[in-house]
Specification:
The chain contains 2 helices and no strands. The chain has 135 residues and is mainly alpha-helical. The protein is rod-shaped, with a radius of gyration of 33 Å. It starts with a helix and ends in a 5-residue tail after the last helix.
Length: 135
């Protein structure tokens, strides 16, 4: 019985750690999405600029190219973070399932022990009742 309690406690701690990891991954994804949105807005703003000077036009083009590279990089990072997020959710689901299974096994073991106890008590009572009474 103590073994089941210990295993359940360990799994619950593991679940807590994995949930914290999930929270951090979700937080990172939100940060990346905010950066991506900002880059896209900046790109749109640079497209609206009307440039007459060739030097400024060159700078704008360079800046736009850099923004496009950043956008591509951020999109790839978000995809990999999404994968990590899904893996983390699967890990949490698995640990939850393991906890439920351990709790079922613990309950079954408890019932088994109680049945044995009841059987022993019944045997004892039957033995006591079967002794001849002395008057």
């Amino acid at each position: 019985m103590k073994l089941f309690n210990l295993l359940i406690e360990i799994k619950k701690k593991e679940l807590e750690i994995e949930k914290k990891k999930l929270f951090l991954i979700e937080k990172k994804k939100l940060e990346l999405e905010a950066k991506l949105k900002k880059c896209k807005e900046e790109l749109e703003e640079t497209k609206k600029l009307d440039v007459a000077n060739i030097l400024i036009l060159s700078l704008r083009t360079t800046f736009q190219n850099r923004l496009l590279e950043d956008i591509e990089s951020l999109e790839k990072l978000i995809i990999s973070v999404d994968r990590a997020l899904e893996e983390q959710k699967e890990k949490i689901f698995t640990i939850n399932s393991e906890i439920k299974l351990l709790e079922k096994k613990k309950k079954a073991e408890t019932l088994k022990i109680r049945k044995k106890e009841d059987l022993l008590i019944e045997r004892f009572v039957n033995e006591v009742l079967s002794y001849p009474r002395s008057v």
